[in-house]
Specification:
The complex is a heterodimer of chains A (about 280) and B (about 375). Chain A has about 280 residues and is mostly helical. Chain A contains eleven helices and no strands. Chain A has helices at about 5-35, 45-85, 90-100, 110-120, 125-130, 145-170, 175-180, 185-215, 220-225, 230-245, 245-275. In chain A, α2 crosses α6 (about 145-170), α2 packs across α11 and α6 (about 145-170) packs across α8 (about 185-215). The longest helix of chain A is centred in the N-terminal third of the chain and has 41 residues, at about 45-85. Chain A is globular. The model of chain B is unreliable at about 1-10 (pLDDT under 50). Chain B has about 375 residues and is an alpha+beta fold. The chains are: A mainly alpha (about 280), B alpha+beta (about 375). At the A-B interface, α7 and α8 of A face β6, α2 and α4 of B.
Chain lengths: ~280, ~375
C-alpha cells in the first residue's frame, strides 16, 4: 500500500482510536497504575494486601455467586431452548416463545427493584404462598440475600443465553435429531445426548459473556442484598464513596479484571479452535 | 463389500396403509392413500417435487402427524405412536450423522438405547462395519469420512438395531454419480440378504427402477399407479405416469373405431391398427405419449406401413449427446424429440415414423397434464 493511502487509513480510524484511548485505555491504565502505587508514590502491593485483608471473603462470595448464577442460567436456558426446539405442544412453545425474551429489555436496576418487592419477607412471593394457605405468615423468610442476587441474575441473563442457544439449536440439521428419535431416543435424550453436544461451543460463549456481565453489575447486589458478604462492585463503590480510597478500589478492580480475563481466555480459546476446524 | 455374516431372510414386517390423510397447516398433502408393503419387498415412492412422497415416508416414520387413516405394522396401528416407538429405521438424505461422535458411537447409539453392554455394542458395530466394507473405522470421527463412507455409516446405524422396516429418504441424492451407482447395488443387496421391508423415496426414475421391485408413482398427494418397474414403464395407467416415466413427446391424435380395427390420424397422416390393441384404444380426440427412442426419421413421402404413422416434419435443432443424434422435429404443430443414428442437416424435410404399438394413448379430456 502506498504511504499516502496508509496515512489516510490511519486518519480514518483516528477518531475511533482516540475515543477508545481516552475513554477506555487511559482510565484502565490509570486504575492499574493507581492499584500498584503506594502512599509515597512508589511501587507497592499495599493496596492489594489491604483489599485482600478486608474483602477476601467477598472475592470468594462474588466468584461463587457468579458461577452458580451461570450454572443455573445455563440449565434454565437449556430447558427453554430445548422446549422451543423439540417441544410438540404448539401452545406451550408459542407462549414460551412470546414471553421468554422480555427480561432482555429490562435494565438490571429495574430487575433488582422488582426482586425486592417479590422476594422480601412481606413480598409478593411470600404473600401469595400465605394467601394460598401453603405457608403460615410466621414462617415467611426474606430471600433478599445471596439467593436474591442469584435469582435476579438468573432471571435477567437466562433470556440472553436461551436466545443464543435456541438460535444454535435451530440451525442444526433437524435430521440429526430425528435420527435419534427414529432409533428410539426420547426427546429428553435427544436434547441431552445429541443436540446439546453439537451446540456446546455456543452455550459456552453465551455463559462466558454472562459471567463477565454479572461480575460487573453494581445495582443488583446493592439493592437486593444490603448485608455482608457482598459483591466486589459494592465494595469498590463503598471504598470510593465512603473513604475516597481509590487505590484499594482499584486493587479490587484489578482482581475483577483477572476474573474476567479467565473467562475471556476461555472465550478466545474457543473462538480460535472453531477457526482452526473451519 | 464383505458377504453378510448373518443372513436373516424374511425378517421384514408388512405395512398396511389405509385412508391416510395428512395436512400441513390446513393444506392437505395426502388425500387418502391406500398401500400395502409386503414383508421383504423393496418399494420405491416416485414422483415430482411436492407430490407427497416424502410426506408419506415421514408419516410412516412418525415425524408427520397423521390427520386420519391407519398405518398397521405387525397387526397394530402405529399411526398415533411417536417415532421412537415405531421400530422403523430411517436413512436420511443428509446422512444425519452426529458430528460429535465416532463411527462406533454413531452406529452403536441405537443399541445403547436398547441397554446393550459395551462389549455387545462393540461386537455388533464391528460386524456391521465389516459388512459395510468399513472394517477398522470404529474410532474415526464421522466428519473425517467421505460422502459414500458417511452414507454407509448411516446405513449401518439404521441396520444395527435389526429393524423390520428400512425407510430410505433420498439417501443417494447427495453422492456423486459413480458412488451413487455402487450404493444402489449395495443397498439393494443388503435389503435382499436381510429380507427387510424397504420403502425408498426418490425423484430419480432410473434409481427407482434399478433398486425397487415395485414402484408407487405419486401425483398431488394421491397414488397414480402401483406396479413392477416393467408394468409402470410399459403400461402407464395415466398420461401423468407416462409423462413422468419419460414419454415426454406429446402428439394429438384422432382415433376412429371401425370393424375390428382403429384408424389413427395425426393431421393428414393416417395409420390403421388391427386386433386387440386397436379395440383398447379410446375413440375420439386423444393424446399420444412416447419416448425419444420410439420414432425414426425417414423420407417425408415414405408409405405408412405395418401400423406405423408417418408424420411429415422439419428438423429444427440437433444435438449430439453421444451414440445417437438427438433432433427436435417440428411436426403436427408440435416439437417432437427424436433420437436417430444418422446425421441430418437443420431444415431437412423428414417423415417421422412412429410405431402405433409403442404409443401410450389417452383421451384428450383425461390427460391431466398440459399437452
Amino acid at each position: 500500500m502506498p504511504l499516502s493511502q496508509r496515512n489516510l487509513a490511519l486518519l480514518l480510524i483516528a477518531p475511533g482510536l482516540a475515543l477508545v484511548a481516552a475513554l477506555f485505555l487511559y482510565p484502565l491504565s490509570f486504575s492499574l497504575v493507581s492499584a500498584f502505587t503506594g502512599p509515597d508514590g512508589g511501587f507497592s502491593l499495599g493496596s492489594f494486601r489491604k483489599a485482600w485483608e478486608l474483602y477476601s471473603g467477598d472475592v470468594v462470595f462474588t466468584v461463587v455467586i457468579v458461577l452458580s448464577s451461570c450454572l443455573l442460567t445455563g440449565l434454565m436456558a437449556v430447558v427453554i431452548a430445548g422446549t422451543l426446539t423439540l417441544g410438540e405442544n404448539r401452545y406451550i412453545v408459542g407462549t414460551l416463545k412470546a414471553l421468554y425474551r422480555w427480561p432482555l429489555f429490562i435494565p438490571f436496576i429495574v430487575a433488582a427493584q422488582c426482586m425486592r418487592t417479590f422476594l422480601a419477607k412481606n413480598g409478593l412471593m411470600n404473600n401469595t404462598f400465605v394467601s394460598l394457605g401453603l405457608m403460615e405468615p410466621l414462617q415467611a423468610v426474606s430471600f433478599l440475600d445471596w439467593r436474591g442476587i442469584i435469582a435476579t441474575f438468573v432471571w435477567k441473563q437466562t433470556p440472553f443465553v436461551a436466545l443464543l442457544l435456541a438460535g444454535a439449536l435451530a440451525s442444526l440439521d433437524r435430521a440429526t435429531l430425528e435420527a435419534g428419535r427414529n432409533l428410539g431416543a426420547s426427546r429428553l435424550r435427544v436434547l441431552v445426548e445429541l443436540a446439546l453436544p453439537q451446540v456446546m461451543p455456543q452455550l459456552l460463549v453465551a455463559l462466558v459473556l454472562s459471567f463477565v456481565t454479572m461480575l460487573s453489575v453494581l445495582s443488583v447486589p446493592m439493592m437486593v442484598s444490603g448485608s455482608q458478604p457482598t459483591m466486589l462492585t459494592v465494595d469498590m463503590a463503598f471504598r470510593i464513596n465512603a473513604y475516597g480510597d481509590y487505590s484499594t478500589a482499584n486493587a479490587l478492580g484489578v482482581i475483577t479484571y483477572l476474573l474476567s480475563a479467565g473467562a475471556a481466555i476461555i472465550y478466545l480459546k474457543r473462538g480460535m479452535s472453531q477457526e482452526s476446524t473451519r | 463389500m464383505q458377504p453378510v455374516t448373518q443372513a436373516r431372510t424374511g425378517s421384514g414386517s408388512a405395512i398396511a396403509v389405509r385412508g391416510l390423510q395428512v395436512a400441513y397447516g390446513g393444506t392437505r398433502v395426502l388425500h387418502g392413500v391406500d398401500l400395502d408393503f409386503a414383508p421383504g419387498s423393496f418399494t420405491a415412492l416416485l414422483g415430482s417435487s411436492g407430490c407427497g412422497k416424502t410426506t408419506l415416508l415421514r408419516s410412516l416414520s412418525g415425524f408427520v402427524p397423521v390427520e386420519s387413516g391407519s398405518i398397521v405394522v405387525g397387526g397394530s396401528n402405529v399411526a398415533g405412536l411417536p417415532p421412537e416407538k415405531r421400530g422403523m429405521a430411517m436413512v436420511f438424505q443428509s446422512y444425519a450423522l452426529w458430528p460429535h461422535m465416532t463411527v462406533l458411537q454413531n452406529i452403536g447409539y441405537g443399541l445403547k438405547l436398547r441397554g446393550r453392554s459395551k462389549a455387545e455394542i462393540a461386537a455388533k458395530v464391528g460386524e456391521m462395519l465389516r459388512f459395510l466394507g468399513l472394517a477398522g473405522y470404529e474410532d474415526r470421527k464421522v466428519t473425517a469420512l467421505s460422502g459414500g463412507q458417511r452414507q454407509r455409516v448411516a446405513l449401518g446405524r439404521a441396520l444395527a438395531i435389526d429393524p423390520g422396516i428400512l425407510l430410505l429418504d433420498e439417501p443417494l441424492s447427495n453422492l456423486d454419480a459413480k458412488i451413487r451407482m455402487v450404493m444402489r447395488h449395495e443397498i439393494r443387496s443388503i435389503q435382499q440378504r436381510l429380507g427387510l421391508t424397504a420403502v425408498h423415496v426418490t425423484h430419480d426414475r432410473e434409481e427407482a427402477m434399478t433398486m425397487a421391485d415395485r414402484l408407487v408413482i405419486m401425483q398431488a398427494g394421491r397414488v397414480a399407479q402401483v406396479g413392477t418397474p416393467e408394468e409402470v414403464y410399459d403400461h402407464p395407467a395415466s398420461a401423468f405416469v407416462a409423462n413422468f416415466m419419460g414419454a415426454e413427446n406429446v402428439l394429438p391424435l384422432v382415433v376412429t373405431q371401425g370393424e375390428g380395427q382403429a384408424s389413427v390420424a395425426a393431421g393428414e397422416a393416417r395409420a390403421i391398427l388391427t386386433g386387440a390393441p386397436a379395440s383398447a384404444l379410446p375413440a375420439g380426440e386423444t393424446l399420444a405419449y412416447f419416448r425419444d427412442d420410439v420414432a425414426r426419421l425417414g423420407a417425408p413421402d415414405a408409405p405408412a406401413a405395418g401400423g406405423d404413422l408417418v408424420v411429415p416434419g422439419t428438423i429444427a435443432a440437433r444435438a449430439y449427446p453421444g451414440g445417437v443424434y438427438r433432433y427436435k422435429v417440428e411436426a403436427a404443430g408440435r416439437q417432437i424429440t427424436v433420437d436417430d443414428a444418422d446425421r441430418h442437416e437443420l431444415g431437412t424435410k423428414v417423415g417421422l415414423r412412429i410405431p402405433l404399438q409403442r404409443l401410450h394413448i389417452f383421451p384428450a379430456s383425461e390427460a391431466g397434464i398440459s399437452a
